[in-house]
Amino acid sequence: MSSYKIETKCIQSGYEPGNGEPRVLPIYQSTTFKYTSSEQMGRLFDLEESGYFYTRLQNPTNDAVAAKICDLEGGAAAMLTSSGQAANFYAIMNIAGAGDHIVCASALYGGTYNLYAHTIRKMGVEATFVDPDCTPEELDAAFQDNTKAVFGETIANPALVVLDIEKFANAAHTHGVPFIIDNTFATPINCRPFEWGADIVTHSTTKYMDGHATCVGGAIVDSGNFDWEAYADKFPGLTTPDETYHGIVYTQKFGKGAYITKATAQLMRDLGSIQSPQNAFLLNIGLETLHLRVPCHCENALTVAKYLKNHEKVAWVSCPSLPGDKYYDLAQKYMPNGTCGVLTFGLKGGRDAAVEMMDKLKMIAIVTHVADARSCVLHPASHTHRQMNDQELMEAGVQPDLIRFSVGIENVNDIIADVEQALL
Ligand SMILES: *Cc1c(COP(=O)(O)O)cnc(C)c1O
Fold this sequence. Notes:
Blueprint: H1 6-12, H2 38-45, H3 60-73, E1 77-81, H4 84-93, E2 101-105, H5 110-122, E3 126-130, H6 136-141, E4 147-153, H7 165-174, E5 179-182, H8 187-190, E6 200-204, E7 218-222, H9 236-239, H10 250-254, H11 258-271, H12 277-287, H13 290-309, E8 314-318, H14 328-334, E9 342-347, H15 350-360, E10 365-366, E11 376-378, H16 390-395, E12 403-406, H17 412-422
Parallel strand pairs: 2-3, 2-4, 4-5, 5-6, 10-11
Antiparallel strand pairs: 1-7, 6-7, 8-9, 9-12, 11-12
The structure holds pyridoxal-5'-phosphate.
């Protein structure tokens, strides 16, 4: 981890050119890398030596961007994935397999809910979903002997539940398992979960990190703090020999890099969800302004939230930075400088009024996306979360009338003017 402030890390971390080398991180648009000795190539395959040989495993552009995200989070090791979905899939499957169990906060991104409730269940990994606002005792009761991880989102998309990170981290550690947190919405600019006890952070870099809606991508960052050896019987994949690599024991050989090395060496090798170097290059350009964009998103969102709260046609507004919000106190504790640019609201006219209002917007577009420079809206019950029944929607914190509003970084008066004419 560098000692620079976070703004400097956004720009400088991850890539340091040597004398006469390109100032800007190059795109290593190459599937493969050349060697003059067959023996050296063999050592690379055995993980005996580090180096590049095939982009499915490692690529210099991707590694530089992963290193920047790692530094932003204050982690020990990181990897990029093709999407946020791939990141959350790998993060769990790297330490859980058929017969295992995970505990998840129920307020989750719709895709993550499907992944954990249905897809990994077919692979034999069961998830128990708990109310993020549950008591420590209720959280404790969700654990089983075969529990391998705890998962939650810093700020849930789209429920905007701010997670009590310490409560979840403490419960995970009491049961000898890591706490994995999806920090997509807060970004490391507003919250660094490792400082509150989380062990592993995931990201959909598609959102604020890219910031311009150009590339789908993901990342996994390991703090290096979880002591796998102390719970060796729970995590044999990390603490016993990997026969596919001539008996390497990841914790012994890679220390704080064990978890990410295993995820790269096994999951990326076999499942192949890599980010393209071209996308990593664009992601890196996005990261260079993350520290400027995120505060602007937050400020605009808070201004819009205050406007909506005073509007006669608006039934409710949810924005964790708005005084009086259910999650205001948790937001002040974990992310006092701001939460995110996404807010949600409902109209007194309910679901139909929501659809009508959205159709009247001129500048603000209806898109299945959040967290990029352009303001946009979405109706989760008819879009991202449409596979869920009403019960599942409520458990995920999504009211049927909820409009998700991703406030962009246009001039806030133009954003409000568009909303105002749509509400007439
Ligand atoms: C979008 C999102 C994901 C999924 O990421 P993709 O890059 O779309 O695969 C996961 N978690 C959160 C919180 C998200 O917002």
